[in-house]
Amino acid sequence: MDAGTQEPAAAARIREIRQRIDQIDQAIIDLWQERARLSQEVGATRMASGGTRLVLSREREILERFRVALGSDGTQLALLLLRAGRGPL
Ligand SMILES: O=C(O)C(=O)C[C@]1(C(=O)O)C=C[C@@H](O)C=C1
């Protein structure tokens, strides 16, 4: 894979960092999928027991947690996470 530089030491360091980035990306993918499965299970369990599909107070709490930690990008990320679990509104 192109490191974007001809300088051998820099290219070696970039390859090393990219290995860790790839590990992190895979962990994010795995966690994303696990979260979506769990969220779907919560929704199905609640609806099967006569409850609501969504709990907006819980969604607000999650959005706030991500906003405090990551700013406006965190809010966008949390919206995508929630959509992955419970589907579009
Ligand atoms: O925590 C719940 O009650 C869920 O249903 C999970 C979840 C989520 O993905 O975090 C999904 C939908 C709800 O509106 C709130 C939160």
TrEMBL record:
<dbReference type="InterPro" id="IPR010958">
    <property type="entry name" value="Chorismate_mutase_highGC-bac"/>
</dbReference>
<dbReference type="Pfam" id="PF01817">
    <property type="entry name" value="CM_2"/>
</dbReference>
<dbReference type="InterPro" id="IPR036979">
    <property type="entry name" value="CM_dom_sf"/>
</dbReference>
<feature type="domain" description="Chorismate mutase">
    <location>
        <begin position="8"/>
        <end position="89"/>
    </location>
</feature>
<protein>
    <submittedName>
        <fullName>Chorismate mutase</fullName>
        <ecNumber>5.4.99.5</ecNumber>
    </submittedName>
</protein>
<keyword id="KW-0413">Isomerase</keyword>
<dbReference type="InterPro" id="IPR036263">
    <property type="entry name" value="Chorismate_II_sf"/>
</dbReference>
<dbReference type="GO" id="GO:0004106">
    <property type="term" value="F:chorismate mutase activity"/>
</dbReference>
<dbReference type="InterPro" id="IPR002701">
    <property type="entry name" value="CM_II_prokaryot"/>
</dbReference>
